Amino acid sequence: MSMNWVQRKIYLYNVTFGLYMLDAWERYLFNALVLVLMWFIFYNGYRNLNELCKRYIW
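^ Small subunit of serine palmitoyltransferase, sequence as received from the core. Prediction below:
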């Protein structure tokens, strides 16, 4: 079984979170929720880091 690096990472992600046993629409929904959550975390982290830099560095 020859898989490239990206396919192995996708497979590991699916097995780790148990997504392999879900239907396709459930996998899409889960991945969409993960993406939205990550966007909120990175966006708010960037905003807080920007405020911290403005307050203490500049």
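The mean pLDDT is 93.
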